[in-house]
Amino acid sequence: MSDTVCVGAIAGAFGVKGELRLKSFTATPEDIAAYGPLCTEDRAREFEVTLTGQTSGALTARLTGIATKEQADALRGTRLYVPRDRLPDLPEDEFYHADLIGLCVHDSGGTLLGRVRAVLNHGAADLLEIELPGESRTVLLPFTREAVPTVDLASGRLVADPPEGIF
Predict the structure, then answer these.
(1) I need a labelling partner for 64 at 20 to 30 A (CA). Which of 1, 33, 72, 137 fits?
(2) How far apart are CA 59 and CA 50, in angstroms?
(3) Residue 133 main-chain phi, psi, to 5 deg
(4) What pLDDT band is residue 133 in, cutting at 50, 70 and 90?
(5) DSSP string, 30-57
(6) Would you identify the CATH topology of the domain 4-86?
(7) What's the gap between Cα 97 and its chain centre?
(8) Nearest CA-CA partner of 98 in 155, 153, 58
(9) Nearest to 49 by CA among 16, 85, 75, 27
(10) Where are the domains of the chain?
């Protein structure tokens, strides 16, 4: 597990005075400002976040050190991270997406089915994108208790009972 977790991304400038559009990846979008300073992936820059409002599909915010539209636009696409130890502990059957990516997926008999490439959510429920061993194609597995009865972060594996025909 990484010691930082991506909690948002900068979507570009909002106005001309350094305000920007911020996409939050937290369960409650406004919580992105509650975790303290956020850093870039390479940790080269750190920003305090002050939320200023909402716009279509994003929050509006000010970041320390960003005072112009040009500075805000230059950060478009920048992902923002927080140290893992600042995130709240989760209930027993909840997981941070970042912790699932890279886990091996085995069936109940122990056969390797693949590795989690991504966790997707298009509105209905989470799907695990599973990269098949030795192949370039992937399959989507519903991330439900029925399809994935065991998540063992300590050993880096999931046990899946996939619906017929997925693999």
Answers:
(1) 1
(2) 10
(3) -65, 130
(4) very high
(5) GGGGGG--EEETTSS-EE-EEEEEEETT
(6) Elongation Factor Tu (Ef-tu); domain 3 (2.40.30)
(7) 5
(8) 153
(9) 75
(10) 4-86, 97-160
